[in-house]
Amino acid sequence: MSSSHDDYSLSRVPMSARRPMWQVLVIRIGSLACVSQLMLGAALGYGMTFWGALSATFLGSVLLQVVSFALGAAAAKEGLSTSLLSRWAGFGNMGSSIIGGVIAIALMGWFGIQNSVFAEGLYKATGIFNTQIWALIAGLAVTLIVVFGFKVLSLTANISLPLFLGAVGYATIHMLSGKNVGELMVAAPSGPPLTLAVATTMVAGGFMIGAIITPDLSRFMKSGKDVFWMTLIGTFVGELGMNLLAVLMAAAVHSNDIVTIMLSLAGWLGAGIVVFSTIKLNDLNLYSSSLGITNMLNAIFNIKLSRVTATWAIGIIGTVLSLMGILNYFVNFLVILGVAVPPVAGIMFVDYYILKRHRKVLDETRAKETLPSECEQWNPVTMVTWVISFLIGYFVKDFGIPAINSLLAAAILYYAGMKVYAFSTKQQIVEFAKTTQTL
């Protein structure tokens, strides 16, 4: 299978295959303006006041914007997916395989969550079959869509995003006509209270994996300027906009169940459209997961697995997860993800933008639209930094915000660790043992 048919899963995206900014932007907004974002906003609105939820959303969104742009701009320049770029951005061959595995597992979890939402919504709307059967049908349908790659992702987003925004807009108008917005903004939360730190971590964790995989989309963009506008507009429309509307909806309906909220405010058609829109996010979850798996298998076993084959395998596994009821662990999943994934961004940022250890070879091969013939086998400083940073984010709860703590800890520890290693080994530019594994 050629690189173009396989969406360049193990190669650079050539300039001839780059897309207009708006095409990638629609997919990006579609990945943010979705049911899980409304679920997150509803969870915040159920456990916080509007102003508390606004603070948490703003802090989490700023962090996501910085991470998304930094990694996305590097990917637009290099034409590489997240897991492939990480080979020359601090993680080496084996480290990139771990990133690929983490991305695949995390996104399979998201796939299961979204598929469960879709299945429950379809069951409530139709009253036929059961949630398990609907989960099976939906999971296989999304898998089939993703098999066809980036072009079909764009087509799906172009269809479902306007419908989704229309349904949410109708629900908002209904909410505004029946409630006093000023009272909703100062209303006490209906559910158990959430702290600012936990809520911010939920916001950052809720899309941190999306920020980390920004390169999977931005590698199809033509410049860093395109990436900036794509991430900025996507964050304001999808993250801030959807979250805060869902906060008000939760306060108006006194529920954190988004299907119940949409039924109350927009009826069956609105609820059905919102549930249906999970397709546009779930296809991106599956798409990036397939890229992660192909990189992992190539890095560890030197296997060039087709992205299509990986898509079928992950789609089936994700569907099984939804049948097992993974939705029940939604909040805990967000919190753990919020501290486990950010260190990856911190390490990649320092290595690519500050240390620039592999920029020369990347520049040389980029001109030829090829990849370097070798990379580090693994980087022990990276592995130690990742573990310590996760532990800091997970256990340090009385100071700062866990997601930000883990990211900053990774950046600082990695930079310091590499400088100490360079001094101790008398190397101007640190290099570890390399592998000549070809792609």
UniProtKB/TrEMBL annotation:
GO cellular component: plasma membrane
CDD domains the record matches: SLC-NCS1sbd_CobB-like
A Pfam family that the UniProt record links to this protein: Transp_cyt_pur
Keyword Membrane: yes
Domain of life, per lineage: Bacteria
Record-stated family: Belongs to the purine-cytosine permease (2.A.39) family.
Protein name (database record): Cytosine/purine/uracil/thiamine/allantoin permease family protein
